[in-house]
Fold this protein.
Amino acid sequence: MESYATALLYATPFFLGLVLFEVLYGRFVKNQKHNLMDTVSSLSSGLTNVVKDSLGLVLVLVSYPFLLEHLALTEIKATWLVWVVAFIVLDFAGYWNHRLSHHINFFWNQHVIHHSSEEFNLACALRQPISNLLGYYALLLIPAALLGVPHEVIAVLAPIHLFAQFWYHTQHIGKMGWLEYVIVTPSQHRVHHAINKEYIDKNLGQIFCIWDRMFGTFQEELDEVPPQYGVLKPANTWNPIIINFQHLWRLVKDAWRTKSYWDKLRIWFMPTGWRPADVKEAYPVEIIEDVYNFEKYRPEASNSLKAYALFQLIMTTVLMLFMFYNYSNIGFEGLLLFGAFVFVGVYGYTTLMDRKKYAVWIEVFRGVAGLALIFFTKDWFGIDSFLSMASYLVAIYFLITIFGGVYFAYFEKPYAAPNLAS
Ligand SMILES: [Zn+2]
Ligand SMILES: [Zn+2]
């Protein structure tokens, strides 16, 4: 896990730099595809994902080395050809995993976060799950195990394969000629994120689009059908942690409430969105019907709240980078506590962005907890040995968090936006 933390230490600023570049480019060409609160929410989702993954918080049901040991028919050396074959096999597995995530209720829960943004931009690519708590992905790698692809090859290729899916989350690149027949392009992936009936659940490929063409899930972006982004059951929150478990919670409620025992069992494995007939009638859920005229989630936000949300995002990112930097010195228990601060932090400030009053309790709690930790350990996870007095700066940050929570929950009244439409 330490090498993963090191990789993230470099990957995070790289991806954030590209997001910033897209924001500036949008401003320059006067075609902004970012909304500040949405982008803060997306990037915060990315933070929770990498922290969770770096801690290895997953129950591995099947591991690749296990399959390799029991299934390999041949033993092959890691020559360049193996790398190429492994990449293609990995992409094939990725296609089917993605298809499974879209079509089965239970699996949709861990993918919905990626589709929950109502914008489409590079930040949206970083909306990655924390609800993937069961490690079953290796099952899809059975073809690789049969061929005897070494574990190291998979371990190196998997993050590269994931990172290579970042760039095509943009609206600034049009169609790409002959490449449209080989790889997944921004145009194809816009279709994937769209909820138009022509587009939904199409283009499930990750790097190569050949799988979609082979298995009948390919759809070209059409000029007369501009993609509309989001999910049919809107998330209605900036809080990525809530979004990660919203669908699961709906399934739990439906399974609990339905009278049919058969439905209680099968709801988890039915097509995404399927609900038992009795609860569907008794507890209707809002679903977007007219994709061109639905209201995007935009709770009121003053400029000071926007600036404050950005400040919280930056501070949380800086603290997380320090966590990765000092990973081996902090120790596992310390990392869990550090990770908890990141999670509660994201939960707190995004709830404040949602303009929920109870956010104040979370913010005061984490502010006091942070100050107490610094007071009792006379440090912040060893930060003072890298920069003297840095723990004082962290303490000031927690003081600001307490005041920010109180200020935005109680003192900044929701204001009436001037009605420009009239
Ligand atoms: Zn998807
Ligand atoms: Zn995507």
Observations:
- Strands lie at 59-60, 134-135.
- Residues 114, 125, 169, 189, 193 surround zinc ion (ligand 2) (CB under 6 Å).
- Residues 54 and 269 are 29 Å apart (CA to CA).
- Residues 2-28 form the longest helix (27 residues).
